[in-house]
Design a protein that fits this description.
Elements: E1 14-23, E2 26-35, E3 38-48, H1 60-70, H2 72-75, E4 82-85, H3 91-104, H4 106-112, E5 121-124, E6 147-149, H5 154-165, E7 171-175, H6 179-188, E8 192-198, H7 202-209, H8 218-233, E9 238-240, E10 251-253, E11 256-258, H9 266-278, E12 286-288, H10 295-302, H11 335-344, H12 350-357, H13 368-374, H14 389-400, H15 409-414, H16 418-425, H17 442-450
Parallel strand pairs: 1-4, 4-5, 6-7, 6-9, 7-8, 9-12
Antiparallel strand pairs: 1-2, 2-3, 3-8, 10-11
Helix pairs in contact: 1-8, 3-9, 5-10, 11-14, 14-16
C-alpha cells in the first residue's frame, strides 16, 4: 500500500479479525479495516518464536487468543463501530475481546475523546462450542521451570531474585530486544529466551497520515506470547511482576474506569486465568508474584540487590519502538523516572542514587508539577506505570526529615503541604494475601512478604 495523503478514520465502519496461522516458528495474525466507500486495508502482525529453540505446532487456542489480544493495535487506528471475528470463536473469547477493548483501550479513548471506541458491536461469524474437544492442551507440569517476564525494571528483578532464593531456576523471557533487559538477564545469570514481534509497517504510515493513535494493553499481548512460548518449550507457569498499584485507575470518564495499567491489573490477570480455564488449561499457568505488594514494598526489597543498580531502567524512553529514539539511561524528567527516583530516595544513599540516574529530579523545579500529580495534589495520576498517591506522599514526607534531601527544591517547595501529604500517605495500601499465587510457589511468596 502506498502512503496515503490523508487517512480518514470515519471512512472505515468495520474492523475485521481475518485469521491466524503458524509457519516455520512464526505466528502471523491478520486483520483488516473496511468501509463502503474506502479501499480495504489489510494488516499482518508477526511473532517469531525461532529464537526460543522450541519446535512443534503452537496450541491453536493460544494462537487464537493471541490474534484476539494483538488486534487492538489495528482496531484503534479507526475505532469503527463494528468488529467482526471471521474465524470460529467461543462466546467466552468474544467476551475476552470485549473486555480487552473496554479496559485496555481506556487511555486511548480518553486521549482521543472516543468513548464509543470502548464498546463496539462485536460480531462472530461462527461460534465454537465452549468445550470443543479438538484442541486438547499439551500435558503441563507446574513443577517445570517457570518462564519469567523481564522488563528491565526493579519489579521483575525482585521476582527473579525471590525465585532464585527459593530454589527455582527461572527461564527469563522478553519480547524484542532492549539493552536494559539484556543487561538485567546478564546480571541474573539465568537462561533466557526472546520472541520477536513485528508490527505491520502500515501502522507507521497510517499514523503519520491521520489514524488514531495511543496507548494499547501491551502486557496483555506479551502475556499471551509468554504462554505460547512456555507451552512450546514445555515450561511451567508464566510469571509476571505486576504489583498492587496496577489495580488503581487514573480517573473515571463517561462511566469507564481509565487505567493506564489495566493489562497489569488483577482484573486482566483474572480474565486471562479464567480464559485459560475455559480452554481446559490450568489457570496456574499465569500469575503475578508481586500482586500483594505496593510499589514501596517492592522498592524496599529491590534495595537489597545493588548488583542491578547500574543496569535496571524503567524509563519508557529506553524502550521506544524506533531504536534511534531510545535513550541509553534514565531521562530524569518523565513521570516514570520521577516516580522510581522518589520511591527509592528514602532507601538508597543519595550520592549512589543520583549516580544511577545521572541527575537529581527532586532538585529540579521543572519537575514540581509532575511530582504534585504523582502525590495526589493536582489533576490525576499520570498515564504511566507508577504507584499510588500514598506511596509518593509517604516518600516525600520521609525526605523532608532527611538532611540529605530536605533542601532539594521539590522537597523544600512541597514542605508547605506536609499536613496534606501526611493525610494522603495515611491511605497507603497494606500487603495483602497471596491471591493467585499457586501453592507450588507458597514458600517463595511467604519469604517475599514476610521479610
Amino acid at each position: 500500500m502506498s502512503s496515503p495523503r490523508a487517512f480518514a478514520p470515519e471512512a472505515f465502519t468495520v474492523f475485521a479479525l481475518t485469521g491466524y496461522d503458524a509457519v516455520d516458528g512464526r505466528i502471523e495474525t491478520h486483520y483488516a479495516l473496511e468501509g463502503p466507500d474506502a479501499e480495504p486495508i489489510a494488516f499482518t502482525e508477526v511473532f517469531d518464536f525461532t529464537e526460543t529453540g522450541a519446535a512443534g505446532v503452537p496450541n491453536p487456542s493460544l494462537m487464537r487468543l493471541l490474534a484476539l489480544s494483538a488486534c487492538v493495535s489495528y482496531y484503534k487506528m479507526a475505532a469503527p463501530s463494528t468488529v467482526e471475528i471471521r474465524f470460529p470463536v467461543a462466546q467466552f473469547e468474544v467476551d475476552y475481546l470485549a473486555a480487552v477493548i473496554r479496559g485496555g483501550l481506556g487511555e486511548f479513548a480518553y486521549e482521543n475523546d472516543l468513548p464509543d471506541a470502548l464498546v463496539p458491536t462485536i460480531v462472530a461469524d461462527r461460534l465454537r462450542a465452549d468445550d470443543a474437544a479438538d484442541e486438547r492442551p499439551r500435558d503441563w507440569d507446574i513443577a517445570a521451570p517457570p518462564l519469567v517476564a523481564v522488563g528491565g525494571g526493579k519489579d521483575s528483578i525482585v521476582t527473579i531474585e525471590a525465585l532464585k532464593a527459593g530454589g527455582f531456576a527461572p527461564v527469563l523471557f522478553s519480547v524484542n530486544q532492549y539493552q536494559p533487559i539484556d543487561d538485567t538477564i546478564a546480571v541474573s545469570g539465568m537462561a533466557s529466551v526472546r520472541v520477536r514481534r513485528r508490527l505491520d509497517p502500515k501502522i507507521g504510515e497510517l499514523n503519520s497520515a491521520g489514524a488514531y493513535n495511543g496507548h494499547i494493553p501491551v502486557t496483555a499481548i506479551n502475556s499471551v506470547v509468554g504462554l505460547l512460548a512456555a507451552d512450546l518449550m514445555g515450561l511451567g507457569s508464566v510469571i509476571f511482576s505486576n504489583e498492587q498499584s496496577a489495580d488503581i485507575e487514573n480517573l473515571v470518564w463517561h462511566g469507564f474506569d481509565i487505567n493506564h495499567q489495566w493489562s497489569k491489573s488483577i482484573v486482566y490477570e483474572t480474565l486471562l486465568r479464567a480464559t485459560l480455564a475455559a480452554y481446559g488449561m490450568s489457570s496456574d499457568r499465569y500469575f503475578s508474584l508481586l500482586r500483594a505488594l505496593p510499589e514501596s514494598e517492592i522498592a524496599e526489597r529491590f534495595k537489597d540487590h545493588p548488583e542491578y543498580f547500574d543496569v535496571f531502567i524503567s524509563c519508557n524512553r529506553s524502550f521506544a519502538l524506533d531504536p534511534t529514539r531510545r535513550r541509553a539511561r534514565w531521562c530524569g524528567e518523565c513521570a516514570k523516572c520521577l516516580f522510581v527516583f522518589v520511591i527509592l530516595a528514602p532507601r538508597i544513599e543519595k550520592a549512589r542514587l543520583t549516580e544511577i540516574f545521572a541527575v537529581d529530579p527532586l532538585d529540579r523545579p521543572a519537575n514540581l508539577a509532575l511530582y504534585r500529580e504523582l502525590a495526589g495534589l493536582a489533576k490525576h495520576k499520570p498515564f504511566e506505570c507508577v504507584g499510588d498517591y500514598a506511596e509518593v506522599a509517604e516518600a516525600l514526607v520521609d525526605l523532608m526529615d532527611d538532611d540529605a534531601w530536605c533542601d532539594d527544591e521539590v522537597v523544600a517547595e512541597l514542605a508547605g503541604q506536609r499536613p496534606r501529604l501526611h493525610e494522603i500517605a495515611a491511605d497507603k495500601a497494606p500487603i495483602v494475601g497471596a491471591g493467585n499465587v499457586p501453592a507450588h510457589y507458597a514458600k517463595v511468596f511467604d519469604a517475599l512478604v514476610s521479610r
